[in-house]
Design brief:
Bound molecules: manganese (II) ion
Number of helices: 7
Order of helices and strands: HHHHEEEHHH
Radius of gyration: 18 Å
CATH superfamily of the largest domain: Iron/manganese superoxide dismutase, C-terminal domain
Strand order of the largest sheet: 2-1-3
Structural class: mainly alpha
CATH class of the largest domain: Alpha Beta
Shape: globular
Length: about 210
């Protein structure tokens, strides 16, 4: 059975300072993300055991564990590649045109994204997604790691709004964390994800 693996980062833990400190990056990647990888693997193993024993008494717990931990693994894997020490300030090309088309302007997109991020009650994520059914960009609020999203959404740009992502640096002033996020976005990664999602998902779910 293939195992989920903690991905290496493309940059050092200190590379995103001062926007995100090395201490947060180290804890976030080597402890939190690693725990989601371990949790997803454990859920799969326990499901295999349940099938072997034909005993599904705790299947609801295992399904929840898999959704939580696997989503945690996926979200963080996307988040790390969405970030870079030096960004280009604004998206370019087709992604820039699509943001203007579906949100009116980059500024309107940014305001909407910030409001979605700041509005999350408790733990969650804000993200820009490609809606493969409507063939459009949308913004979503992800509760915990896995709730409150449409099933056809492909995440393109994700912001972790769990307190572990910012509290050591920003305490309760999460608006400053959201503001700093815009300084470390790897727009070429977001663009590549956008081009791939748009090209590969048309008609995949709803013809
Ligand atoms: Mn996190």
């Amino acid at each position: 059975m293939s195992k989920y693996v903690l991905p290496e980062l493309n940059y050092d833990y200190a590379a995103l300072e001062p926007s995100i400190s090395a201490r947060i990056m180290e804890l976030h990647h080597s402890k939190h993300h690693a725990a989601y990888v371990a949790g997803a693997n454990a859920a799969l193993e326990q499901m295999a055991e349940a099938r072997d024993k034909n005993d599904f008494a705790v299947i609801n717990k295992l399904q929840k564990d898999l959704a939580f931990h696997l989503s945690g693994h996926i979200n963080h894997s996307i988040f790390w590649t969405n970030l870079a020490p030096t960004n280009t300030d604004r998206p370019e090309g087709e992604l820039a045109a699509a943001i203007a088309e579906f949100f009116g302007s980059f500024e309107a997109f940014q305001a909407h994204f910030n409001a979605a991020a700041m509005g999350i009650q408790g733990s969650g994520w804000a993200f820009l997604a490609w809606d493969s059914v409507g063939s459009r960009l949308i913004i979503e609020q992800l509760y915990d790691q896995q709730s409150n999203v449409a099933t056809g959404s492909i995440p393109l740009l994700m912001l972790d709004m769990w307190e572990h992502a910012f509290y050591l640096d920003y305490q309760n002033v999460k608006g400053d964390y959201v503001k700093a996020f815009w300084n470390i976005i790897n727009w070429s990664d977001v663009s590549a994800r956008f081009e791939l999602a748009r090209a590969k998902t048309k008609g995949l779910l709803v013809g």
